[in-house]
Amino acid sequence: MTGFPQLDAFRGGPGLVRLVGHRGARGVMPENTMEGFAFTLLAGVSLLEFDVVLTRDGVPVVTHNHHLDGAATRDAAGNWLMGQGPRVAELTLNELHGYDVGGVDVRSSYGRQFCDQVLLDGVRVPCLGDLLDLGHDPRFADLHFLLELKSDPALRDDARAREAFVAAIVAKVRDRGMAGRTILHSFDWHLLDVCRRAAPEMPTSCLSQMPETVDALCAGGLSGFVSQDCSLPRMVADAGGQLWCPNVEDVTPELVAEARRLDLIVLAWTVNETGDIDRMIEAGVDGIVTDYPGRAQHRLRLRGARW
Amino acid sequence: MTGFPQLDAFRGGPGLVRLVGHRGARGVMPENTMEGFAFTLLAGVSLLEFDVVLTRDGVPVVTHNHHLDGAATRDAAGNWLMGQGPRVAELTLNELHGYDVGGVDVRSSYGRQFCDQVLLDGVRVPCLGDLLDLGHDPRFADLHFLLELKSDPALRDDARAREAFVAAIVAKVRDRGMAGRTILHSFDWHLLDVCRRAAPEMPTSCLSQMPETVDALCAGGLSGFVSQDCSLPRMVADAGGQLWCPNVEDVTPELVAEARRLDLIVLAWTVNETGDIDRMIEAGVDGIVTDYPGRAQHRLRLRGARW
After folding, report:
1. CB under 8 Å to B229, separation ≥6 — which residues?
2. A283 in contact with chain B, both atoms CB, cutoff 8 A
3. What predicted TM-score, i.e. pTM, was given to this entire model?
């Protein structure tokens, strides 16, 4: 738990709750875009959560799904794709950059959740390297990255492909000099094992959502992570993670207290509703991952807390 | 109506409705701040509405009221002022910059309207010159200014003070080379007379809100503006304005059509609710002044309109 300076940026404390921008700040700006990250930083939130996959030509890019989301992606003619878009792993970077990810289709069930989100034209899926380079801007000396590795179900049993995926991301982070400001984050705790071997200088963050997480750990013959009492914080600690990132619905004050005893940092996601924000503060989490940084700031301020 | 190139940026047309950011984008960012204007530009909205008054030492600054608003202003200790704050005209710029305008107190009736607005620390009331200088940034070549002059009731009968107020603002706009991208905007139509004399190169925009506007025009012995049928567009045209900026509640398709016949540009304010946005589009306004640019963009896009 020591020797990871980047953890300090995510650790809460008395009167201190960290704010992490979810895919930038999805409530306000198109998710996982440079424009959205720029806004998040402008909002005084310097901890960025985002998702990484690889293009066919092996470039780590920042987008949430293995397939482009038809409700958030337009073609060259400016029309939303609708339904499931192409698989990123089957597109070159150049082909990927033919799509516009500058906003959601509010006629879709997904887009309807984000009717106030800004709608831009000509926005491209960012390269991971371009996002990391923001860390060199002297205005953003506090910028840290919560980098989610999207585990590809198609490659679940291909150990070499999984190692190559991790290696490409780790190489990019090191190349841009941001290893000391990056945490590797995944629902796939076994992939985080690969990360720990490939990049011992970067902490790992175990995402969880119940009951899927425990089911997945058990079903995959992965019961090595499942301890007798099945407490998620204990499982994260046993797995070798430094952060536990539970779904907001799974957080209780007791589990947070246990995580603290295990010296884990707890970041809850995705914490958007006022009641959830308040409940997470009361539960004592280190930080919250939110689409609405302004809303969370006001709830914290009302309690005299900083972020 | 000719000879004012800056009008083109505000003129709508078939499938084109202009978006004007209200005090930046008050729904998202602290109003009338450089941070808020930066966000508005990031959101693809390059028409900025804002308010100007003078400090005691004669510096034009960007803030809405003659008095600092206690619900949106904190003292050096970080506490909101509550109630009415000091009069800007009685503060030097240096004294004014002792206050923090980085967000609202959501416990107040004013702040409660903007619970999602970002909350920042250490934000200062901008100088008009700094805002105008954004126009020199090559990224913001489309940036135009809808500059509201806040008429001071305490100086209503002091013609020299009113002329000095206008002169200070006009001098700043010219000094920064932005006269060709600025429109002078006020509820005080007589002050706009002063503007037209002082700055014939800048169009003027008559704000209205019924019934206060006609009452004020008549009560002040200002019935010269009030034509027989009392139609607001006709009054604006007679007064010499190029834009009519009605409160959203006062807009009808008939009045918009009349304004068009008079070659006036119509910008409605403050258009935040979805139903109002739709109604303004249907009424055929040239543009809408909004606190929520993202929301308005989606409503326009659903109708295939640009902005």
Report:
1. none
2. no
3. 0.96
